[in-house]
Design goal:
Largest sheet: 6 strands, antiparallel
Number of helices: 34
Number of domains: 7
Structural class: alpha/beta
Distance between the termini: 112 Å
Helix content: 40-55%
Length: 1250
């Protein structure tokens, strides 16, 4: 209802009035229809009355004929009487049948039936019959009493008429007249009753008509009156509210809103009123803001005729212009006043210039500025102050006419520069820089005299008001500078005068007065100058004295120059001394190298020959002779250990000992100790314990090699000085009360490794000395224990380099305790020269002891079936899915070994050496990618192709970034790929090596593997080959002539070219960063050296995934399986200037049935090679007369007929970079003296096998 009323409120006035008119017309129509209804109902009564008349007429005719029959006795009257009575009866019967017709017939059917019987009742109009039937139906449904009474009277009249009809038609000769008259009388009574009921019904109809008309008229009048009142109210109330608001507006109240929200004409009028009210309020707000000083706003005119808004805007514009003029005038005057205040007082020239620039930069928002002061004597401008300009961009002195500053000084005209070039100096800040847009150059001129030039620059354009301001204040600045210079000049003269005060006492009073006057007023400058001119004569005398003093200063200057010459000579002597020290250091290094060479050379012969004697192959030595040879051999080894310790100490002192940090676990330390010292302790019947505390670090970040060296030195001392009792190694966290010497060591992250023995102990006075080089607790000639005393000194320095320190606790006769404190993580800022000493080959295959291992069984697989074909290890945690995968693999002609976890899989891999690994994705989803770490670390498993599959769940596999050989795929794809890898007849390998000899060697090693080998000597050539062909594997040297091997791999990756399986085969020592960078492309890195060809063969076999059934008829032969028959008949050239070495080497080589050629230096060696084209190998010493080994190898590689001969460098030089230098000079391999016989023959097998 509320929504309907709201909609009605929104109607237009015209619509509301039209509604009222429509309702009035509808009321008239309703009254008319009601009158029509009751009128027609009244006609029904008339029709009924008419029916009574017809019935009465028929009955009367029947009665008349009856009386005529009585009089005449004629039958025709009798029949006529019966006919009319029967017709009247029929009329009654028809009317009585209407009630029975209503349920089964329509009004029209009933009306037609009645009309056909007696049309005269209805004035021969069927519609009258239909009208009567419809009204009777209504009255019948209302159960009107009159209708019921009429029906009863009609039925009785019909019965009486039937009796009369029957009597007349009975055929009797005599008729009962009385009976008929009685019945006629009864009929008259009944018809009288019917007439009364019809009259009563007619009366009711008339009364109902009157009441209905009255009620309807009243209702319609009430509705129309209410609607008219509502419409009137909807017009008058809003109008009254608007009138009230108009009155409020007349009083100046524009805030009272209208509550009229209709959409009719009144609503439109209210909206217009609200707009007028808002406009007035906007004008009031606007004038209030203008009154408060805000002139930045404007009224938006509603139209061109909005004179109020236009006038107000014009007024504000006038006020704004006036305010701008006043602000500019105030700004101008304020700037002048502030500048005068800033420059008040007596200041130095630099202070005046700095204050001037500081004020100008702040007041004018300038970013750069300089102020130059003019010196008339030199005709130059000197920089007095600047801001925003670095020193490198400043010109300290500028001549008049030079540059823009000099040009402005010359013309004495202000210059404003705009549109500066892009390369002009920029204004910079901590976040960037920006170029100034314009520069203002202002000459400081007073009385046509130039006093300086002011320069200011800004990123904003200087306005005319700014330029006018600068013009206005430049005179004040000029006057201040002039007065300051005059005052300074006077102060300088005054100072000079005061210095001579003792000698010019006559003028003291006058000078005092002049000083006071200068301090109070600078305007008396001219007068003071005149007074000073009067005093000029006296000053001349003072100047003469000053000249004398100047001469004295000249003499002092000459003396200082002499001293400087002496200092220069001393400095030259210091430089000579420094060069001598440097040369001495070089001599020391050369001495160590020469000492190493001179000691190792005889040791080489001694160890080789004593080794031959110990073997006693000829059987001609007694047990005493063999024991003597063993003693000689052991002494030689001890001497070699001494040489190594001296070299280590020299490296530490020279700062050349390299440290390489990596993570190490306590179990690794324990295993290393047990492996090296357990058997020695058992040999001396000593108890040997290693205790690792729970609070010891799980991982230490240190150099494992140097840490083990420290522990070995401490344990070696403990074993040496302990004859009974026990030796204990304890590893734990440093206790809080530990007194650590280093400031960077904190007990919170420091751990201790303590070696405790029950040996002889160390006296207190010897505790410091034993850590010095070549010092022992017992240094007497009769000492019981041997040794050089270098171990503890080296250990102390190594501990320092690792960021730790060694503490000693000892008591004579009870034993000693050495504690190494070491941080958990190294402080890199305290360690210098952290370069790798050696590259640990993580990929080297570790051979385990041949112990029986119980292999776990997950499901029945093929482990007990002979593996004539290829074998696959399947890892899956779910038994049912593992079984399903097992059958899929088996159907593809592969044998399958199944494990539920990685640990069991590694046991199967090591026992059966499969060709590939298939891993169920469920294993990774359950336990994460780290579950595969043991496979990565296993020397054999990490080389196998790994396929991550999930045939059951259908998961999308993820790429495992840390596994270069892993492919994520489905089962069928994995098996097809394995078939392609394992059963391809010929694999393609690209050898990328710039050395022809090495390439040929690699080809000879790989010949038995049934592979197709392509060669490339440069990186660019290799890039082209890989781009065009699909290689299964590449063997890559890093030191290529055009681009490095690492750069080649990066170039292939950047060009989106698939990098084949890669084996790095290089002689270069790799740093940790280089090793990490290369590990992105391969895990196979082989350093050229001992057994490098065997490792190369293993890596190629693993990368090509070969299986036993497809191995060629000539299978791969490992170097370790080659017997000594390979040496027979081989010709070896031994080049050494020591005849002892030639003799020793020749002897062991000849024992292997090799022919030995000799040469005393490189020059002779080249001649021997040229004269003997069939030399199989050269053993080359380095330090030789005439031509050393480096030069000889270089010449050999440059001589075509002998450049392919393999060369093994044998040298006693053991300093840094010796290996790399030998390889660079042309050596194929390197072996240091003294020569280990087993290493020598293993290396000879490598290079002689072809």
């Amino acid at each position: 209802m509320h929504f309907t009323m709201k909609m009605f409120k929104d109607w237009k006035l015209k619509s509301k009035l039209l509604l009222l008119t429509v309702l009035t017309l509808i009321s008239i129509l309703i009254l008319s229809l009601t009158s029509s209804f009751f009128f027609k109902t009244s006609r029904t009564v008339s029709i009924m009355i008419n029916g009574l008349r017809v019935h009465e007429s028929l009955l009367q005719q029947g009665v008349d004929n009856f009386y005529s029959f009585q009089i005449t006795k004629e039958d025709k009257y009798r029949e006529a009487s019966a006919f009319y009575i029967n017709r009247s009866n029929q009329l009654v019967k028809d009317l009585l049948k209407i009630q029975g017709f209503y349920p089964i017939k329509t009004n029209k059917e009933i009306a037609k039936y009645l009309f056909n019987g007696f049309p005269e009742i209805y004035n021969h109009e069927l519609k009258n019959a239909e009208l009567m039937v419809s009204r009777l139906r209504i009255l019948n449904s209302l159960k009107s009493g009159e209708i019921e009474s009429t029906r009863g009277y009609s039925q009785k009249a019909l019965d009486a008429a039937e009796l009369i009809k029957n009597e007349l038609q009975s055929g009797k000769s005599t008729i009962d007249i009385e009976k008929i008259q009685f019945e006629l009388h009864e009929i008259q009574k009944h018809y009288s009753g019917i007439s009364d009921e019809v009259n009563s019904l007619s009366h009711k109809f008339n009364s109902a008509l009157v009441w209905a008309m009255a009620i309807i008229a009243i209702i319609l009048c009430v509705v129309i009156l209410l609607l008219a009142k509502y419409i009137s109210k909807s017009i008058t109330v809003p109008v009254k509210e608007m009138v009230g608001n108009f009155k409020l507006m007349a009083k100046g109240n524009y805030h009272t809103p209208l509550s009229i929200h209709t959409k009719d004409e009144i609503g439109s009028l209210a909206q217009s009123f609200q707009i007028i009210q808002n406009d007035f309020q906007s004008v009031v707000d606007y004038t209030r803001m203008v009154a408060n000083g805000d002139l930045s706003i404007n009224l938006t005119p509603k139209s061109k005729e909005d004179e109020l808004s236009i006038s107000l805007n014009q007024m504000v514009k006038t006020l704004k212009d006036s305010k701008a003029t006043n602000d500019e005038t105030h700004w101008f005057r304020s700037g002048v006043n502030q500048l005068n205040e800033e420059l008040q007082g007596d200041h130095e020239l630099e202070e005046v210039a700095s204050r001037t620039l500081g004020f100008m930069s702040e007041f004018l928002s300038a970013e750069l500025g300089t102020l130059y002061v003019y010196h008339e004597e030199q005709e130059t401008l000197s920089l007095a102050a600047s801001f925003g300009i670095p020193d490198k961009n400043q010109y300290k002195n500028i001549r008049v006419g030079h540059g823009l500053i000099g040009l402005v000084a010359q013309t004495k005209k202000l210059k404003h520069l705009k549109d500066l070039p892009k390369d002009y100096f920029n204004v910079f800040s901590g976040t960037g820089d920006v170029m100034p847009n314009n520069i203002l150059l202002v000459p400081l001129v007073y009385n046509d005299a130039l006093w300086g030039v002011l320069e200011i620059a800004s990123i904003k354009i200087f306005s005319e008001s700014v330029i006018d301001f600068v013009r206005a204040v430049r005179e004040s600045i000029t006057v201040k500078i002039a007065s300051t210079l005059a005052r300074v000049r006077l102060e300088n003269l005054l100072k000079t005068t005061q210095e001579q005060a003792s000698e010019l006492q006559v003028q003291q009073e006058e000078l005092r007065v002049a000083n006071e006057e200068l301090a109070e007023q600078t305007s008396i400058l001219t007068e003071n100058e005149k007074k000073l001119q009067v005093q000029q004569e006296e000053l001349r005398v003072a100047n003469e004295e000053l000249e004398e003093r100047t001469n004295q200063l000249e003499i002092q200057k000459e003396e200082i120059e002499q001293k400087n010459k002496g200092l220069s000579v001393a400095h030259d002597k210091i430089e000579i001394k420094a060069r001598e020290l440097e040369q001495a250091s070089q001599y020391k290094s050369d001495f160590l190298a020469n000492m190493s060479h001179e000691l190792r050379t005889p040791l080489n012969s001694l160890l080789i020959l004593s080794g031959i004697l110990v073997k006693n192959k000829n059987g001609n030595l007694t047990d005493e002779d063999i024991e003597s040879a063993q003693i000689i051999n052991k002494s030689g080894k001890d001497l070699l250990q001494l040489i190594n310790e001296i070299l280590d100490l020299s490296k530490i002192e020279a700062g050349k000992m390299n440290i390489e940090f990596e993570s190490i676990q306590p179990d690794d330390i324990k295993n290393e100790i047990l492996m090296d010292f357990k058997h020695q302790a058992d040999k001396k019947n000593l108890d040997f314990h290693i205790d690792i505390s729970d609070d010891f670090a799980k991982n230490l970040e240190t150099d494992p090699l140097r840490l083990n060296q420290i522990i070995k030195n401490l344990l070696s001392n403990a074993l040496k000085f302990t004859s009974k009792g026990a030796i204990t190694v304890s590893m734990k966290k440093a206790v809080d009360n530990s007194e650590l010497w280093r400031s960077d060591l904190k007990t919170s992250d420091t751990y201790s490794i303590t070696v405790t023995d029950t040996g002889v102990g160390i006296p207190d006075e010897k505790k410091e000395a034993i850590f010095e080089a070549f010092q022992q607790a017992d240094g007497s000639t009769s000492r019981q224990y041997g040794g050089t005393g270098l171990g503890l000194s080296i250990s102390k320095e190594l501990a320092r380099m690792l960021g730790g320190e060694i503490h000693l606790e000892s008591e004579v006769g009870k034993g000693s305790s050495f504690t190494l404190f070491i941080p958990e993580k190294q402080n890199k800022t305290t360690i210098q020269n952290l370069k790798p000493v050696t590259l640990k080959n993580e990929n080297e295959i570790i051979e385990t002891e041949n112990k029986p291992v119980v292999l776990p069984i997950f499901i029945d697989d093929d482990r007990d079936i002979p593996h004539n074909g290829s074998t696959v290890v399947l890892i899956h945690p779910k038994r049912d899915e593992a079984t399903s995968l097992y059958y899929q693999i088996h159907e593809s002609s592969f044998h399958a070994l199944v494990a539920s976890n990685v640990a069991d899989a590694i046991l199967l891999i090591e026992a059966h050496q499969p060709s590939a690994i298939i891993i169920g994705m469920e294993l990774i989803l359950e336990k994460g990618e780290d579950v595969l770490n043991p496979l990565r670390l296993n020397s054999y498993a990490s080389k196998l192709p790994m396929h991550i599959v999930n045939p059951v769940e259908g998961f999308i596999e993820r790429d495992l970034k840390d596994l270069p050989t892993v492919n994520a795929t489905n089962v069928s794809q994995a098996i097809n790929k394995m078939k392609t890898q394992l059963f391809t007849e010929s694999k393609k390998i690209l050898v990328i090596e710039d050395n022809d000899t090495t390439r040929q060697l690699i080809k000879s090693i790989l010949t038995p593997t049934n592979v197709q080998i392509d060669e490339s000597a440069t990186g660019e050539e290799a890039f082209d080959l890989i781009s065009k062909k699909n290689y299964d594997c590449i063997i890559l040297d890093l030191g290529l002539p055009d681009i490095s091997g690492n750069e080649l791999l990066k170039k292939l990756s950047k060009a989106n070219i698939k990098v084949p399986n890669t084996i790095i085969y290089t002689g270069k020592d790799l740093s940790r960063e280089e090793h990490r960078e290369l590990s992105k492309y391969t895990n196979s890195i082989i350093l050229k050296g001992l057994k490098s060809d065997e490792r190369l063969m293993d890596e190629v076999s693993l990368f090509l995934h070969q299986v036993a059934t497809k191995t060629p008829e000539n299978p791969k032969v490992k170097v370790t399986e080659i017997d000594d028959s390979i040496f027979k008949g081989k010709k070896v050239l031994v080049v050494d200037d020591e005849i002892r070495n030639i003799f020793a080497l020749g002897k062991i080589l000849e024992e292997k049935d090799m022919e030995v050629l000799e040469a005393e230096n490189g020059k002779i060696a080249i001649d021997v090679l040229k004269n003997n084209a069939n030399v199989d190998l050269v053993l080359m010493d380095i330090m030789m007369p005439e031509m050393d080994g480096y030069e000889a190898m270089t010449v050999i590689r440059q001589t075509p007929e002998i450049q392919d001969v393999p060369i093994i460098c044998l040298t006693a030089k053991a300093m840094k970079d010796d290996y790399q230098k030998a390889i660079s000079s042309g050596a194929n391999d390197y072996l240091s003296k003294p020569i280990d016989e087993n290493k020598l023959f293993s290396m000879l097998k490598i290079w002689l096998y072809n």
